[in-house]
Write a structure and sequence with these properties.
- The structure is a single chain.
- The protein is of the alpha/beta class.
- The chain contains nine helices and 55 strands.
- It has a 29-stranded mixed beta sheet, with no helix packed on it.
- Strand 1 (about 70-75) and strand 2 form a beta hairpin.
- The longest helix is centred in the N-terminal third of the chain and has 25 residues, at about 1-25.
- The chain is globular and about 110 Å long.
- The N and C termini lie far apart (about 115 Å).
- The relative contact order is 0.03.
Length: about 900
């Protein structure tokens, strides 16, 4: 009973307060102004979704009791002058807040809450308000016009990080005392009003992250002589940077990044001697970097990245002795790096990548031992790494990939206790990895030295590097075997070296592996079943080795596997059915092995995302599964050089991705460290495809025992670029609708039993650069327009009844006659034979017809046939 009393007591108190509050509302006409303020606060509190303001309790015997409430400050007379409820977990709206009852309010801070709805116009009645912060809420709508007419004393307006939209009113010019305008991370539209430049008191202007804010930077902004911070980044502003920007001499920070600004950097920018941060990145600025930039002696951060700036760097950069961050990547800068740029600065980070710089890397890049981040990738730097790197113990990130650097690379390093990431790939470095790398670089997380001339073995001590998550040594001359213990490795790539031995069973302990690429080595033995423990594996590439045995059943446990390359080994056996559990597979390449059995029907049922199926050069038998066209995402189907039989399924028109002319470029989720590589037989040769692989569509069923006709349904695959059905036993004619395959670049139907004429419409395939119809029974004239005139005699060899260019055999009947005859539908006896063949047939066997004509029943048939030939000739001529 006591427990029930205790639990119901607070409820009773709340009920009593509500009753008293309602009574007060009804008698509010008799309340003083101070009491009305308390009433307004309580009224708003009751409208909130959550009652977090526990101290807001009404006391009838204390008219100024609200002055002690959380977040409330009052004047000496008891009037509310400040409401500070930042980060108070408030949920609800401002609609029930009667701001007109708080005429003395000076400071209002409701930031970092979950307030939603619109901003009430009543706020505009707070004529004494100097500070308004509603940032980091969920407010929407537009700024009420009452702001600009009623808040004449406002000095700070912060609406950052809401959903407020509409245009910025030109009436903002009325806020003559405004010092800070923060409207970032909203949805404002239209252009920045010129009138903003007449708010001369403004010191901070933030309009960043308003992607619908368009138009130029108003020239009037240069009149804001007191402005210290200007951030209008990540909008859609266009045109040039105002030439008179140098007049804003109080500026300390400028950020105009991620817009559409064009033209040069104005030389007047050199007048901003108080500037510490200049960010003009991700625009379309062009021209040279003005030498006046060297006048910015206070500059600590300069970011000009991702523009089209060019020319050489001005030597005046050496005056920037306080510069800590220097980012100029992804431009068109060229020439050498002036040596004295690095002499006096205190650089913490520099990014010179994706330009066309040449010469050697600056020797003083780590002067003062402050450098943390350095990148100079994708340039034309040459020579050795700078000597100063050896003593640079502060460096954490060092990237110089894609240059022409050389020398014994690890001799340039020493002890770097904090070094986490090193990318030396695609240079001309030599030397070996030191055995004590676990001691000299103990925190190394990322090491890429791919595409160099390095030698030696992979250090046995590498298993001690507990932070190492990526090791890419592909494309070198490393020898020895695969390390036996790398438990924390996520990306392990050692392709195209001289690694020997087997894949150790301990690979199953690498449970964090995402990419395992050991292709292009001299590995032997079987695929270890322990690989099935690597449940995080997305890429498994064992191609181009000497692997034996079959595919382990355990690979079916790799549920998120996307890429499987086992091609060009000596593997055998059947494809295990457990592989169907890897339903996310994107690429299956089992080509150039000794796999046998039938192609499983479940392949078509299990892999909805499969883009490439390559089973080329194996020993598969049986028919092509009818279920295969269920692979709607398939772009490359290569079943060539097997022992497949039966007919081409008529359901092949269900390969949806082959029926699309334009495809999105497929970006691998494995980043730049692993690049897909598929060999496709096209244009009479085997060509590797990597970066453009997703743009290729190919069907290759050549060198099998396929019979029957070429189904008309194939002509629905209008996105095909390569079609190879050669070296089979196909009969019938070439489908007339083959002219629908407008994207074809390579077509090979050679070495079959095809007959009849070449469809004239094939001359409309203007992308066709390789054609092979050789060794069939084709007849009639060769179409002679467009691309067809570019092919050689070998294209048509082995077809004795073909005529016309480029063959020496001329057509006795004009080409247009042949074309007309071929276009005529067959009549009741299926007359589709070429005229010349018909005439030869008549002459050669005339005697036989004469003998046959003695028999009356036969004579009718014979003369009817001859009559039909005559009618065809007369009609054609």
């Amino acid at each position: 009973m006591e427990m029930e009393m205790v639990m119901t007591f607070p409820i009773f108190i709340l009920f009593f307060q509500t009753i008293v509050f309602i009574a007060l509302i009804k008698s509010s006409d008799g309340l003083s102004g101070v009491e009305l303020e308390a009433q307004a606060l309580l009224n708003w509190r009751t409208s909130l979704k959550n009652q977090t303001l526990d101290s807001w309790l009404f006391k009838t015997n204390n008219k100024t009791g609200h002055c002690g409430w959380f977040g409330i400050q009052c004047s000496d007379g008891g009037s509310v002058i400040e409401i500070s409820l930042s980060n108070s977990n408030l949920e609800g709206t401002l609609g029930r807040f009667n701001f007109s009852l708080l005429p003395h309010l000076i400071h209002l801070d409701l930031s970092l809450n979950s307030l939603e709805g619109t901003i009430p116009p009543d706020i505009g009645r707070l004529s004494n308000l100097t500070f308004l912060d509603l940032s980091h809420n969920e407010l929407s709508g537009s700024i009420p016009n009452t702001f600009f007419s009623g808040l004449r004393k406002l000095q700070i307006l912060n609406l950052t990080t809401n959903h407020i939209g509409g245009q910025i009113s030109t009436s903002i010019v009325n806020l003559t005392k405004l010092r800070e305008l923060r409207l970032g991370y909203n949805s404002f539209t239209g252009s920045i009003p010129e009138q903003l430049g007449f708010v001369h008191s403004l010191q901070i202007l933030e309009l960043y992250e308003n992607p619908h804010l368009v138009g130029p930077i108003p020239g009037s902004l240069v009149q804001l002589q007191k402005l210290q911070r200007m951030d209008i980044s990540t909008c859609n502003l266009s045109s040039n940077i105002p030439p008179q920007i140098g007049d804003m001499k109080e500026l300390v920070e400028i950020s105009l990044s991620k817009n559409l600004l064009s033209g040069p950097i104005p030389p007047s920018i050199g007048n901003l001697t108080k500037l510490t941060i200049l960010d003009l990145s991700y625009n379309q600025l062009s021209g040279a970097l003005p030498s006046e930039i060297g006048n910015l002696g206070s500059l600590t951060s300069l970011d000009l990245s991702s523009n089209t700036l060019g020319g050489s760097l001005p030597r005046t950069l050496s005056r920037l002795r306080k510069l800590e961050m220097f980012f100029i990547e992804s431009n068109l800068f060229s020439g050498t790096i002036p040596v004295d740029i690095w002499e006096h600065n205190q650089l913490l980070g520099a990014d010179l990548s994706f330009n066309t710089f040449s010469g050697t890397l600056p020797s003083g890049i780590c002067r003062g031992n402050n450098l943390i981040n350095f990148s100079a990738s994708h340039n034309n730097f040459s020579g050795p790494l700078p000597e100063g790197l050896k003593n640079c113990t502060s460096v954490i990130w060092f990237v110089v990939e894609n240059n022409r650097l050389e020398g014994n690379v690890f001799e340039a390093f020493s002890v770097h206790p904090d070094l986490m990431s090193v990318d030396l790939s695609r240079n001309q470095f030599s030397g070996h990895i030191p055995e004590n790398i676990d001691e000299t670089m103990p925190k190394l997380n990322f090491l890429s030295a791919a595409g160099n001339h390095m030698v030696g073995t992979i250090p046995s001590t590498i298993h001690k590097m507990r932070y190492l998550g990526l090791l890419n040594l592909s494309g070198n001359n490393f020898t020895s075997t695969i390390p036996t213990s790398l438990p924390n490795m996520e990306y392990f790539l050692i392709s195209n070296n001289h690694i020997t031995g087997t894949i150790p069973n301990s690979v199953g302990n690498m449970t964090k592996l995402v990419v395992l690429d050991v292709s292009g080595n001299r590995l032997s033995g079987v695929i270890p079943s322990s690989l099935g423990n690597c449940k995080s594996l997305e890429v498994l590439d064992l191609s181009n080795n000497n692997m034996l045995g079959g595919i382990p059943w355990s690979l079916g446990q790799l549920g998120i596997l996307q890429t499987l390359h086992l091609n060009n080994n000596s593997l055998s056996g059947e494809i295990p059915s457990s592989l169907r559990n890897c339903s996310g597979l994107d690429i299956i390449d089992l080509g150039e092995n000794g796999f046998s059995g039938v192609i499983p029907t479940w392949i078509g049922e299990s892999f909805s995302s499969l883009r490439i199926l390559r089973l080329r050069s194996n020993k598969f038998t049986g028919r092509i599964p009818q279920e295969l066209p269920l692979l709607r995402s398939l772009q490359v189907l290569d079943l060539a050089v097997n022992n497949l039989s039966g007919e081409i399924p008529r359901t092949f028109d269900n390969f949806t991705s082959m029926a699309i002319k334009l495809r999105d470029f497929h970006n691998s989720s494995h980043g730049k460290y692993y690049e897909e590589n598929i060999v496709i037989s096209t244009k009479g040769q085997a060509l590797p495809y990597s970066r453009t692989l997703s743009l290729v569509t190919c069907m290759d069923i050549s060198s099998n025992n396929i019979v029957g006709i070429i189904p008309e349904e194939l002509t629905s695959l209008v996105g095909l670029i390569v079609l190879n059905l050669s070296s089979n036993h196909l009969t019938g004619n070439i489908p007339k609708r083959i002219s629908a395959l407008k994207e074809l670049e390579s077509l090979d139907l050679s070495n079959n039993l095809l007959f009849d004429g070449i469809p004239p419409g094939i001359s409309s395939l203007t992308f066709l650069s390789y054609l092979n119809f050789s060794n069939n029974n084709l007849s009639g004239p060769i179409p002679s327009s467009n691309q067809m005139e570019t092919f050689q005699e070998s294209t048509y060899s082995g077809n004795p009844y073909l005529c016309g260019f480029p063959l020496f055999k001329k057509c006795e009947v004009p080409t247009q006659v042949w074309t007309t005859i071929h276009k005529k539908d067959d009549d009741e006896v299926g007359f589709g034979i070429d005229v010349s063949v018909g005439m030869g047939f008549g002459i050669g066997f005339g005697g036989l017809f004469l003998v046959l004509s003695v028999k009356r029943p036969w004579s009718r048939a014979c003369f009817k046939f001859i009559d039909l030939i005559v009618k065809k000739l007369l009609w054609a001529l």
